[in-house]
Amino acid sequence: MLLGRVAGTVVASRKEDTLEGLKFLVIKQLDVEESETGGYVIAADAVGAGVGEVVLYATGSSARQTVMTKDRPCDAVVMAIVDTWEVGGDVKYVK
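The chain above was modelled as a monomer; its predicted structure follows.
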């Protein structure tokens, strides 16, 4: 799993039939210091996350392991909204 911040949404009015009903989010990867790293990824939203929220997401075959994405052609999925995290006893993020 990876940490990321929801940067935006993607609307696709025409798509593969098995993708109907999925909401797509633009995710920017974060490190444990809450700094943005790398590029962006488009992920299916399995938890109802919104723009600006910090989330956990998975990519690759793990993205097809949620109830919402099972047997669907997606390569990334948001599977949790982060409330807090700590590293080495130091709180790094609080929602």
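The mean pLDDT is 92.
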